[in-house]
Amino acid sequence: MYQSQMLIDGRDLPLEEGGDRRAVIYNPANQEAVAEVAVGSRQDARLALQAAERAFLLWSKTSSQKRGEILHEAAGRVRDSSERIARLLTLEQGKPLKYARTEVLSSADVLDYYAEEGKRNYGEWITGPRSRSIVLRQPIGVAALITPWNYPVDLLAWKVAPCLAAGCTFVAKPPSLAPLAATEFVRAVSQAGLPAGAANVVHGPGGEVGAELVESPISRKIAFTGETATGRSIMAAAAAHIKRVSLELGGQSPFIVCADADIKAAAASAAQRAFSNMGQICISVNRIYMADEVAEAFTAELVARAEGFKIGSGLDPEVDLGPMFSRAQRVKTREHVADALEKGAELLSGGREPEGEAYEKGYFFLPTVLDRADHKMKVMREETFGPVAPLMKFKSMEEAISLANDSPYGLAAYIFTSDLKTALLAAEGLEAGGIGVNVNNVVDLQAPFGGWKESGLGRELGRWGLEAYMETKHIRLGMG
Ligand code: NDP
């Protein structure tokens, strides 16, 4: 069985040195054991933080050109290992191998991007009447990078790359139930020429290892992606030292289909973003609002798309959708569907596990379309994190925007229309960090990504992602 080691102070910690606590990682497609992992402790987290603190002295003084070279080398090493990392990702998380490959390769692209962006950390010069001011941006220090299981490599790359490009060092804590690919990603990065201790990985429970990383005075920056409830507790703990926090939290993204939309394109986009990765995406399409006039045509097209996906083990190259990540995720999805049906929704497709021997042992679930949804239902108010697309009609754009904004979340919102004015007015009125107009994705490596309201704080990607790892310093020169 594959063994996943922690990485502390430039050294792989063999399982036997990781104490007697072990965890087994299971494949969600068949519940077979795939790996054994050392479960770290608060003490391991402390050792890793101390190593990162020592390495910071060297790395923060390394030129941005040299850091860039090392990040490019890291990207190359991730690409060289991509097949192995992608396979581990499919085995632990369930997603089809073709998407696991894309995730790992795009993580290499993130490293390449920040290798260059790190060089653009320009200062400023301000002329005062009797003084001159220089403004510098300097690395914050040691960062704790805490990530979830749905995109364990990509979401870690969004943190690792700008963190290192800024001159910070880090301790990563991958999700306990899917730590394998993320750890291999950091291992490849750490071998690219970083000082020992600049890149560390500690496994273990969030409430213990994660909490130590957040509470320790050594970490100066917390970058977290995960549930809103966890983010809230991390923010509270970080307040003890007024730490810098970036929080990428839950979402409940609306998708508005206007009367003048290209219905086929809208339905294809909605289906892809509602069901891919089994709906376990923070910017998944969670609530679909359709203009009365096109509701029937859009619904028929969406149902046809939902029923067209091939479901199975992620290792099968023909498969579009793998299993859900865990029993708990599937239970929650079933509960949300049952709640909607009890409150008057109509089941148009799915709503249950697929039948057949191939599906018996995995956490499979059919893409589900629900009609006649309303805001009393959990599927419209809470994050289901499952492959469910609830439909609701609207009569005017004002009503659509108001329904879309009726949520504590504000990560992404989508609108399909062929009218530029409608698109721009809606984009201005929607309360979300990312607005997709005639697209079903708001992620772009060069643009800011993050949430409004309870979906988060701060931005990742682009130059905003780099700024999140830097402090501003003003140097004032007397000229009297
Ligand atoms: P969780 O919040 O449960 O866990 C995320 C990470 O935090 C895990 O590594 C977890 O460790 C750790 N953790 C848990 N408790 C603490 C704590 N008290 N202190 C420090 N760390 C802790 O999220 P999930 O893994 O369930 O991921 C799904 C969630 O992530 C969804 O809500 C989704 O919307 C959100 N997400 C947000 C994105 C965004 O960009 N806005 C993108 C992707 C996902 P352990 O695994 O040991 O519990």
List its traits.
single chain, Aldehyde Dehydrogenase, Chain A, domain 1, 480 residues, 6-stranded mixed sheet, 7-stranded mixed sheet, 15 helices, binds NADPH dihydro-nicotinamide-adenine-dinucleotide phosphate, alpha/beta, Aldehyde Dehydrogenase, Chain A, domain 2
Describe the structure.
There is one protein chain. The protein has 480 residues and is α/β, with parallel strands linked by helices. It has 2 domains: 2-249 and 455-475, Aldehyde Dehydrogenase, Chain A, domain 1, CATH 3.40.605; 253-444, Aldehyde Dehydrogenase, Chain A, domain 2. 38% of the residues lie in helices and 23% in strands. It has a 7-stranded mixed beta sheet, with helices on both faces. The protein has a 6-stranded mixed beta sheet with strand order 10-9-8-11-12-22, sandwiched between helices. β2 and β3 (11-13) form a beta hairpin. The longest helix has 21 residues, at 97-117. The model has no long low-confidence stretch (mean pLDDT 97). The chain binds NADPH dihydro-nicotinamide-adenine-dinucleotide phosphate. NADPH dihydro-nicotinamide-adenine-dinucleotide phosphate (NDP) binds at residues 146-150, 155, 173, 175-176, 205-207, 210-211, 214, 225-227, 230, 233-234, 248-251, 282, 383, 385, 411, 451, 455-456.
